[in-house]
Every structure is written in structure tokens, then in C-alpha cells.
């Protein structure tokens, strides 16, 4: 096979992968992009930009499948080849966000904005965490200062430090619960944007409760921020893999995003957990009829 034929083959595979991605066949798209990457590596005229794009495209497929670990690997490979590939930065940010690596996600969103100030997804992502990180820095700087002053003034007292740590953790839980309740009250009033902010603050204090993510996903659905809803449901499912609300709300978001296969997959998984869930059955029938 000549070098020219190989170039044609990987390029055709890339186009085929793109078509599969557009129709929601993410698993097949991943497979085809992998073949294209393999063919491009064999080519004597291997182009780093083309290779970067292929890794970025496969990362997008992995992200749609919920395989954040592989998505991150491909984004890293893509960015090693072309350091300022905006799509790879956004995809890595989304995968980091789904894995609750919020600081890493924030850095990628801000980097993307430096490259293109008009990116809506990057603006939304950066804005979600600007308040959180400012608060984080202020709070923990204060805690560090207090602890250092106490440790330098007195001999170590491990039990006392442990008690202080437990009290701080309890206070975080209490504050997270109060903020979540404030968010719930705002949802009942239809103030979804304000409620989403309350849930964000609640997650900052305690980010291991699935309900805060599913509640914020509900707000994002009302605000038509469907990609954000998918991300929050993914975070909830990372905590509780059988969370019915997360599966249903992600299915709703996928439906609005025209990602039919992903929608059906989540509904089928939900019905394995709750076979008689009428809302899921109704939505599944509605999606399958289209």
C-alpha cells in the first residue's frame, strides 16, 4: 500500500467516525477513530495536527459514553501534539468536571477563554467556579493561618486537632444542608438560576452528596443548559451509580440534545433499577416513536 493510499484511508476513516458521532453512535465512532489513529501512525507523512484532531475527536466520543478516564487520556495526547487545541481543552474541562476535579476544569475553561473570548461553554464553565475558588482560597488561607499560630504557640495535641477537624467537617455538612434547602425553596418558587447557585455553594461545602448534583441538574434543565445537566448527572452517578433521578434527568437532557441512543441507554438502565417507573417508561416510548 502506497503512502498516498494510507493517507486517504485514515482521512476516510475520520469522516466515517464523524458521521457515526453525528448520529449518536459513539461506541462505533470511538472504534473508527482508533483505526484512523492507527493508520495515521503508519503513514510516512504523519501530521501532528491531524493526529491531535483524531485524539480530540475520540475524546469527544469517550465523553459522550461517560468514559471520562479515556477522554482525559486522549485530550492530554491531543494537547501534547497541539498545546492550544481549544476543543481538547473544553473536552478535558468537561471530563474533569464530571469527575469532580473542579480546579482542573476551571483552569482549562480559563485557558480556552484566553484563546477565544467568545466561547459560550468556556464562559459558563469558568463562571460556575469563579465564586467557589475565591471563597475556597479565602477560607483555607484563614484556616492555615489559625492552625499554624496555634501549633507554634503550644505543643502538639493530636486529639484536639482531630476534634477541631471533626467540628469543621460537621460545620461543612451543616452548611451544605442549609444551602441545599435554600436551593430547594428557590426551585419551588421557579427561581432556577438562583437555586443553581445555592446548590453550587452546597457542593463546595460537601461535594459527595448525589442529591446536590441532581438538584442542580434539574435547574440546568429548566434553564436549557443541557450539557451542564449531563455533567451534573454524571457527577451524581459517580457517587451513586444507580441514582434514578440522575439517570432520568440525564436522559431528559440527552433527549433535548438529540442524543437518542444515550437517552435510551440511560432509561433502560433506570428501568433495570425501577422497572415500574412510569415517567421513564413514558419518556422511553416517546423517544422510541421518533
Written as H for each helix and E for each strand, in order along the chain, the element string is HHHHHHHHHHHHHH
Just give the CATH class of the largest domain: Mainly Alpha
Radius of gyration: 22 Å
Structural class of the helix and strand makeup?
mainly alpha
Largest sheet: none
Q: Helical region count?
A: 14
What is the overall shape? globular
Indicate the proportion of strand residues.
Answer: under 5%
Overall mean confidence score, pLDDT: 83
Which architecture name of the largest domain does CATH use? Alpha Horseshoe
Overall tally of structural domains: 2
Multimerization state: single chain
CATH fold-level topology of the largest domain: Serine Threonine Protein Phosphatase 5, Tetratricopeptide repeat
**Low-pLDDT stretches:** 1-5, 154-165
Estimate percent helicity: over 70%
Distance between the termini: 44 Å
Number of strands: 0
TPR repeats: 244-277
Subcellular location: Cytoplasm
GO molecular function: heat shock protein binding
Keywords: Cytoplasm, Repeat, TPR repeat
Structure description:
It comes from Hippocampus comes. InterPro entries: CiliaryAsmbly_MitoImport, TPR-like_helical_dom_sf, TPR_rpt. This is Translocase of outer mitochondrial membrane 34. One of its GO terms (cellular component) is cytosol. The protein is an all-alpha fold and 290 residues long. It has 2 domains: 3-97, Tetratricopeptide repeat domain (Serine Threonine Protein Phosphatase 5, Tetratricopeptide repeat, Alpha Horseshoe), CATH 1.25.40.10; 155-289, Tetratricopeptide repeat domain (Serine Threonine Protein Phosphatase 5, Tetratricopeptide repeat, Alpha Horseshoe), CATH 1.25.40.10. The chain contains 14 helices and no strands. Helix 3 (48-65) runs antiparallel to helix 4 (68-81) and helix 7 (120-153) runs parallel beside helix 9. It is globular, with a radius of gyration of 22 Å. Residues 1-5 and 154-165 have low confidence and may be disordered.
Amino acid at each position: 500500500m502506497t503512502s498516498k493510499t494510507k493517507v486517504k484511508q485514515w482521512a476516510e476513516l475520520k469522516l466515517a467516525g464523524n458521521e457515526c458521532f453525528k448520529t449518536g453512535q459513539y461506541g462505533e465512532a470511538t472504534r473508527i477513530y482508533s483505526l484512523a489513529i492507527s493508520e495515521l501512525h503508519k503513514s510516512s507523512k504523519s501530521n501532528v495536527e491531524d493526529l491531535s484532531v483524531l485524539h480530540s475527536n475520540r475524546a469527544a466520543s469517550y465523553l459522550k459514553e461517560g468514559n471520562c478516564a479515556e477522554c482525559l487520556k486522549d485530550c492530554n495526547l491531543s494537547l501534547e501534539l497541539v498545546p492550544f487545541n481549544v476543543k481538547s481543552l473544553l473536552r478535558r474541562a468537561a471530563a474533569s468536571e464530571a469527575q469532580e476535579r473542579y480546579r482542573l476544569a476551571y483552569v482549562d475553561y480559563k485557558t480556552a477563554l484566553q484563546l477565544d473570548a467568545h466561547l459560550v461553554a468556556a464562559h459558563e464553565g469558568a463562571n460556575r467556579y469563579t465564586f467557589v475558588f475565591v471563597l475556597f482560597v479565602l477560607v483555607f488561607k484563614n484556616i492555615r493561618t489559625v492552625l499554624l499560630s496555634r501549633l507554634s504557640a503550644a505543643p502538639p495535641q493530636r486529639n484536639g486537632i482531630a476534634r477541631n477537624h471533626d467540628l469543621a467537617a460537621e460545620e461543612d455538612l451543616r452548611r451544605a444542608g442549609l444551602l441545599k434547602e435554600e436551593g430547594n425553596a428557590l426551585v419551588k418558587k421557579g427561581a432556577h438560576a438562583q437555586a443553581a447557585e445555592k446548590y453550587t455553594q452546597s457542593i463546595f461545602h460537601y461535594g459527595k452528596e448525589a442529591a446536590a448534583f441532581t438538584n442542580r441538574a434539574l435547574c440546568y434543565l429548566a434553564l436549557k443548559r443541557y450539557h451542564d445537566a449531563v455533567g451534573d448527572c454524571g457527577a451524581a452517578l459517580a457517587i451513586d451509580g444507580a441514582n434514578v433521578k440522575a439517570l432520568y434527568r440525564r436522559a431528559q437532557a440527552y433527549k433535548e440534545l438529540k442524543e437518542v441512543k444515550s437517552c435510551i441507554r440511560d432509561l433502560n438502565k433506570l428501568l433495570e433499577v425501577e422497572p415500574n417507573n412510569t415517567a421513564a417508561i413514558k419518556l422511553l416510548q416517546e423517544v422510541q416513536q421518533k
